[in-house]
Design brief:
This protein is of the alpha/beta class and 299 residues long. The chain has one domain: NAD(P)-binding Rossmann-like Domain (Rossmann fold). The chain is 47% helix and 12% strand. The protein has nine helices and seven strands; from the N terminus they run βαβαβαβαβαβαααβα. It has a seven-stranded parallel sheet with strand order 3-2-1-4-5-6-7, sandwiched between helices. Helix 1 crosses helix 8 and helix 3 packs parallel to helix 4.
């Protein structure tokens, strides 16, 4: 089945790879990105070129996930274009790296806005259409950092991803009776193949950060990044994340897994998530809400 899909944060990284992979699979894909007539204009040209050269239906759409107005306009544009919207992929996000104490509260709030509140903006714009249709899929790009091993100096990002993952779990049961499925994609720490680490934010309070760099934690930043890289197999390929998303989207309704882990480093997240998801399912059974664990099939 050909789906109409929107993916946020699709100017680069997982988002760009996934948008192309889904278009290659035969879907109509809207690659959401901000500043399509400004700094991301070259990415818009890349989208047009890829669509033309590969004869696929891939389109860029202005979608600044930090702006209510932009999100509303972008989702409305897609629905007006196609008459429907089948799949929403929450991919937009940003990473930071540095001692937690050296980040200002405002920086924490900004990262939370990009990684968590953005999904709420998109959901409020898109879910009325999916509920009206009585069928749909919401895919959340989480992170193994939400429950796996959590090395130091990534706390604002880890905290935001954990919050987003928790939100995804809550939404799942509130959407299932509308015929809307949930899948949570859980990538591991891919240190190569994207600009995730290279473009990460740094603490605003550099004086406070320097106290960590020169004190008993001197050298920890380098050691942490080197350690993460050493866990990653030489053949780890970020494209596997895009392939996993395509597999989920292409699965028949009602057969999709709740979570999909793509973690070459095996940091333990899959084990912890397995326990947490079983506990959730058991609680729902105990309180008589077992039907919320599976999407309702519309007639």
């Amino acid at each position: 089945m050909k789906n109409v899909i929107v993916i946020t944060g699709a100017s680069s990284g997982f988002g760009a790879l996934t948008a192309r992979a889904l278009a290659d699979a035969g879907h109509t894909v809207y690659a959401g990105m901000r500043e399509t007539t400004g700094r991301n204009a070259p990415q818009v040209d890349d989208v047009k070129r890829y669509a033309s050269e590969n004869s696929v239906d891939l389109r860029a759409v202005e979608l600044d996930v930090a702006s209510d107005a932009s999100v509303e306009a972008g989702i409305t544009h897609i629905i007006n274009d196609c008459g429907r919207l089948d799949v929403v992929i929450h991919n937009a996000g940003h990473m930071s790296f540095g001692p937690a104490e050296a980040f200002t509260p405002e920086q924490f709030a900004q990262l939370y806005d990009i990684n968590v509140l953005s999904t709420q903006r998109v959901n409020r714009a898109a879910l009325p259409q999916l509920r009206k249709q009585g069928r749909g899929l919401v895919v959340w790009i989480s992170s193994s950092s939400a429950r796996g091993g959590t090395p130091p100096y990534l706390s604002p990002y880890f905290a935001a991803k954990a919050a987003m993952d928790s939100l995804a779990v809550s939404y799942a049961s509130e959407l299932s009776r509308w015929g809307i499925e949930t899948n949570i994609i859980v990538p591991g720490a891919f240190t190569k193949g994207t600009n995730h680490f290279a473009h990460s934010g740094s603490p605003a309070d550099q004086a406070r950060a320097e106290e960590y760099h020169q004190g008993p934690y001197a050298g920890l930043a380098e050691q942490s990044l080197k350690g993460l890289s050493s866990l990653e197999p030489a053949d780890a390929d970020v494209a596997e994340v895009a392939k996993a998303i395509v597999r989920v989207v292409d699965m028949p309704f009602g057969t999709r897994p709740f979570r999909s882990h793509i973690d070459p480093s095996q940091d333990g997240c899959e084990v912890v998530n397995g326990v947490a998801d079983r506990v959730r399912a058991e609680l729902f059974r105990r309180i008589g809400l077992e039907d919320l664990l599976t999407p309702l099939r519309s007639e």
